[in-house]
Amino acid sequence: MMFFEIVCFSCKNVFRVYEGSEKYKRFKEKPKGTYCCDECSHKIQLEAIKHLFR
Q1: CB-based contacts of 3, cutoff 8 Å, min separation 6
Q2: How many domains is the chain built from?
Q3: Which pLDDT tens digits describe the chain residue by residue (54 residues)?
Q4: How far is CA 9 from the centre of its chain?
Q5: Which of 4, 5, 23, 25 is the most exposed place for a label (fewest CB within 10 A)?
Q6: Cβ pair 1, 21 in contact under 8 A
Q7: Residue 8 and residue 27 in contact, taking contact as beta carbons nearer than 8 Å
Q8: One Pfam family of this protein, by short name (predicted)?
């Protein structure tokens, strides 16, 4: 199975994106973009929801 190792822009940890996932497709299209791991992505979504209801 193919994968890429990407550095999370938020926590700077290295994470893998595997072939067939949405992040893998986005990385193949635009490798210079900014990407975050699933944990940071979830935290960002929760913060956005909190700010929405303030």
Answers
A1: 16, 17, 18, 19, 24
A2: 1
A3: 899 999 999 999 999 999 999 999 999 999 999 999 999 999 999 999 999 988
A4: 8
A5: 5
A6: no
A7: no
A8: DUF2197
